[in-house]
Structure formats: C-alpha cells, structure tokens
Write a structure and sequence with these properties.
Blueprint lengths: L12 H10 L1 H12 L8 H16 L4 E5 L17 E7 L10 E7 L8 H4 L3 E3 L2 E3 L3 H20 L7 E7 L10 H8 L4 E4 L2 E2 L5 E5 L1 E10 L15 H13 L9 E9 L9 E10 L2 H15 L8 E10 L6 H17 L5 E4 L4 H6 L5 E2 L3 E5 L7 E3 L3 H16 L4
Parallel strand pairs: 3-6, 3-7, 7-15, 8-16, 9-14
Antiparallel strand pairs: 1-2, 2-6, 4-5, 5-17, 10-12, 10-13, 11-12, 16-17
C-alpha cells in the first residue's frame, strides 16, 4: 500500500457511477462510430482506422502513443499475413513505485471476425437497451469502456498509479500471430493487467482461460499397387484412422482437457496403398502442466502405430499459454467484488475455454482479470449484442479497479 500521507483519497465507486451515467449517450455515439468501421483481422486499413480513432482519444488525454507495425507486415511479400498496427499508449501517474504505485495494463483488440462490407450490411442499431452491430461486444464495446474509464478518472482528478498503459492489438481474432511478441514485451513490465473483453452474458468476469496447443502428426507408410501387391504396402490411412480413435479417447482422462482431431488428410488415388497421411489436432487445457501431459500422451500414441511398416512424427505447431486462476488473480477479483457491491450489483467469476490476449499476458507471469467490458453476447454472429444498461456500472467498476490496484490494494 502507498503511504497514506502521500495518497489522495480514493474516489468511492458509487461516486463514479453518476459521472459514468452522464457519459452514456456519448458512449453510444462513439460506439456507433466504431462499429461503422470494418476492421476484420485481414483488413489492415480498417484496423488502422480504429487505431487512428483510439490514438486521437488517448493523445488528447496526455498519453504518449506508439504505433508499431508488426514485423510480419513491414515489407512483407504480397502473400504474407498483413495486419494493422499495434497501439501502445502510456501515461505516468502521481505515485512512485516506492510509495506503492503500480503499473496497470489495459488490453483490448481492434479487429473483428467480419469481412469488409459487414458494417454497411448490418449497421449499428439500438433495440431498447441492446445495441447490435459487427464487433459491438467483441471487442469495440470493451475497448471503448476502457477509454471512457480513463477519461472518467482524469475528470475526477485521479491518477493514483505509477503508470497506466493502454494496449490495443490488431489480430486477436486470429490468434495474435504478429502482435504476440509485442504484447508479451509490454506485459513483462506490468504489475496488473485488466482485459477489456466484454463480461459474460450473466455478468461474470473471467478469472481463467484454457491454453491451446496445436499439433500436426504425419504418418508415413509405403506405397504399393492396391490390386496386384497390396501386401507390399503399409497403409498410412489405416494407421491414421486408428490414431484418430486413440487420440479422441484421451478426452475425459484429465479434468478440463479436450483433444480434437479436426483435420484428416490421406492418399491421392484409390488404387494405391496410401503412403502418407496427416492429422491436425488441438488440445485445450486449464494448466501448463496439463498441456505437457497431453503432449506426452500424444507422443506415446504416435510411437506405437498399429499398422506394421508405418511411422508417425509429431510436431507442435503453436501454443497459447493458459490464463490460470492464481492467488493474485483471486485477490484482484475480490477487489472487483467489493467495488461491485458498492455500485449495487453482485459479481461472479468464471473460467472459459476461449483464448485471448489475456492468455499471453498471463504467460508472462502478470496477474490478469478479464471480461471487464459491459455485458454482451452472441459474439462472432449476426446476433451479437451489447447490453447498454450495464455500460455505466461497468465503466465505474473498471475505473474503481484502476485506482484500487494502482495504489497497491491487491
């Protein structure tokens, strides 16, 4: 905790609710403007239009903004992955670390899953308290909530933290392939991170996310004429079929672990004993230990192919670390619960199998609390919605968390 003599009185959460409510109409105007921008992950110009918008808001509030063009996009060949920029904005607070000041990271993403033209086909609409439109919940509503909470605190004259950092990524919806090293580098200097994905449909925050590991298994056999001398062949397709059964049987062996063989490729002609097959599978698990355990089980199954003359090689293509529910995460959630109670609502916590940038931050060892945007749902679909009635309370909650964590109260 910071020294009381050097700390200004922290605003009570309830004192932030009125100012948050007064900003609701402006929030809705801004949300409509953001939703009107097509910003699919593979639309760098659209993502950068969102980045321009966010940069203007943060610059006007005294943040130093850096725009980083990911290396994979800089000077890349025409067939390479191209994304928008990563935006990193920083602002120093009034508390030194020696006095308990903490560095707080807010993270949101600017990309959506939708193709160019979707914003015109399904423009922003408001049906009662429910807003609709591409990205309204995932994640433009959450991103805007973060910006609004920052502005709310500044208007209250509150900067009780060592540093506040706002990170906006361009490629979260495709697994953050180019922004990942930047996210990890930024996160390593932080004390706490707050993820701005929207709250679950029941209002829960997210305290844990499963990790994901992708594997490719290549089965090598031996070709032969299927009609004249099939006994000289070694059927890789048959070996792969047995392997699919063995791998799917790993489901249920460990709590919270799922294994899915999603792609099977084998052979070219029906009159040739299949010489090669490929399996692509995904593993999701709540802990890093479980991910390693499943990898060992996959390698064990691959080492014992059922068809004589076949061999199997295992490659791990990628891994996104789990966001584990640590003791520090639970302390952060307890602070959030206290603030929610002061604001007049109850707050639950949940774990999810979906992954996001919060996983990458957690992988650096920084405690993360996610789902701090307004309540929303039906992400990635034409029915996507955001409950605007929850916007003021969630902005006030987020602003309260920033001040509580910023002066070391967790």
């Amino acid at each position: 905790m910071s020294a009381p003599s050097r700390q200004r009185p922290r605003p009570h959460p309830a004192d932030l609710l009125g100012p948050a409510r007064s900003r609701l109409q402006h929030y809705l105007y801004d949300l409509a403007e953001l939703v009107a921008i097509d910003s699919g992950s593979y639309s760098p110009d659209g993502v950068n239009a969102v980045a321009d918008w966010v940069q203007a808001r943060l610059t006007s509030r005294g943040f130093a903004v850096e725009r980083i063009r990911p290396p994979a996009a800089a000077g890349a060949p025409s067939d390479a992955l191209r994304t928008g920029d990563v935006l990193v904005a920083r602002k120093a607070g009034r508390l030194a670390e020696a006095d308990g000041g903490r560095r707080i990271l807010l993270v949101a993403h600017m990309d959506t899953v939708f193709e160019d033209g979707t914003a015109a086909e399904r423009p922003f609409t408001l049906d009662g308290t429910h807003a609709h439109g591409p990205g309204v919940s995932d994640d433009k509503g959450g991103l805007l909530a973060g910006l609004t909470a920052i502005e709310l605190l500044q208007e209250q004259g509150t900067s009780e933290y060592a540093e506040l950092v706002f990170l906006a990524t361009p490629d979260e919806e495709i697994g953050s392939p180019v922004s990942r090293p930047i996210t990890e580098e930024v996160a390593r200097d932080m004390h706490y991170a707050l993820g701005l994905e929207c709250a679950r449909e029941n209002g829960d925050l997210v305290v844990a996310r499963k990790g994901v590991a992708d594997f490719r298994l290549t089965v090598t056999g031996r070709a032969a004429h299927a009609g004249i001398e099939p006994e000289r062949g070694a059927n890789a397709a048959l070996a792969a079929a047995h392997l699919v059964v063995a791998l799917q049987a790993l489901n249920g062996r460990w709590d919270g672990v799922t294994v899915n063989v999603g792609v099977v490729r084998a052979g070219q002609r029906p009159n040739i004993v299949c010489p090669e097959a490929e399996l692509r599978l995904e593993v999701r698990a709540a802990t890093a230990v479980d991910v390693r355990t499943v990898r060992w089980a996959i390698e064990d199954a691959a080492a014992r192919p059922t068809v004589p003359g076949t061999t199997v090689t295992v490659e791990q293509l990628d891994e996104c670390p789990p966001m584990e529910a640590t003791a520090a995460t639970h302390r952060m959630f307890a602070v959030a619960q206290q603030a929610a109670a002061a604001l007049g609502f109850t707050l639950g916590a949940t774990a999810t199998g979906g992954v996001g940038d919060a996983n990458l931050i957690a992988g650096t060892g920084v405690p993360v609390l996610d789902g701090l945007g307004p309540v929303g749902g039906a992400d990635h679909s034409p029915q996507e919605w955001l409950d605007t009635a929850t916007v003021p309370e969630r902005i006030a909650l987020l602003a309260s968390l920033i001040t509580a964590l910023g002066d070391g109260d967790a």
